[in-house]
Each structure stands twice: as C-alpha cells, then as structure tokens.
Design a protein that fits this description.
The protein has about 200 residues and is of the alpha/beta class. Helices cover about 50% and strands about 15% of the residues. It has a 5-stranded parallel beta sheet with strand order 2-3-1-4-5, with helices on both faces.
Amino acid sequence: MLKIGLTGGIGAGKSEVSRLLAAHGAVLVDSDVIAREVVAPGTEGLKAVAEEFGPGVLAADGSLDRPALGAVVFADPERLRALNAIVHPLVRARSAELEAAASADAVVVHDVPLLAENGLAPLYDLVVVVDAEDDVRIDRLVRLRGMAEEEARARMAAQATRAERLAIADVVIDNSGPLAALAPRVAEVWNGLKSRQK
C-alpha cells in the first residue's frame, strides 16, 4: 500500500485532483467528507460541537449550521482550535478505518486540507501539494463559489501559506492554469505513483 497525503490551499483545485486520482484507481479517503460525516445529525461529534459552541450553530432541523459555525471559528483562532480538538480525532479514527479496508496493493490518497497546518506529512509515504497563485485562488473563490473577496482572503489567511505547503511537498501539481491542463498532469503523477509500487 502506498499512502499519499494530498493537500492544497482553498481554491487551488485539490478536490478536482482528488476526483481525477480516484478515476485512475486511487482509494480516496476525503477528510472533508469524513468531517461532515462525524458531525451529522445524531452523532457524538455533533453533540460535542453543540455543547462547545451553543445552539446557535445548529440549524432548525438539528443539523450543523456550517455558515454560522464558520463565522465563529474563522474569526477566532482559539475557537477554531476548539473545533479542531473535537473533529480531528474523529476524522483520524474514521480515516484509519477506511485505509485499513483498502487492498494491500492500493494507492490510498488521503485528501487532507490542513495537512501542513497540523504537521501530518510524516504520516504519509509521499505528500502531493496542489498549488496555484494566490490571485488565481481568490478569483476562483469569488467567481466560482460566490465568496466576497474579503471572505476569500480571510479563509486563505486561516490556512498555511503557499511556502509552508510547498516545503512539505514531495510532488507539486501546479493548477494555476486552465482546467484542461490539469488532467494530463494528474495522469503523469498517477503513473509516477504506480511506478513506485513496482
């Protein structure tokens, strides 16, 4: 089994790279998806978040009100740490379960947005960083996700810098250009990963 840590700043295109790697045959362990699962209605994770942050972070139907929670944690590093202390251990446990279920010859790609921030690079055989210029990322967040530029900059500021991510990279996928250029680069990276297993 080859364990890959995949990361990239918000708006860099990491999710698209994950999708392309999965299409090539990678077993994808997506931390964002798992982070949603562990705070779904009825989970201990959601109960812990509501106890920590109060009923204002719950929607009328009892689910997590992500925009309300985001408004609290992205403005206050201490509150973000409190949230991470609840969610990260749950995500790690579920990720380990999914990895253990993969075949011995699998390429397991762990899609981890906060890999650099949390010092997780040593957990993987290889770290792949999806990179794009800051102005390209801001443009994507504003144009494609409908964020205000100020919110996009705040989200980026809450993450590791490009330099911090690039410092832990074994492989860099530059995604500053058009989407059409991404698939051939991901195919090249996939072939490189497969060749490491021989």
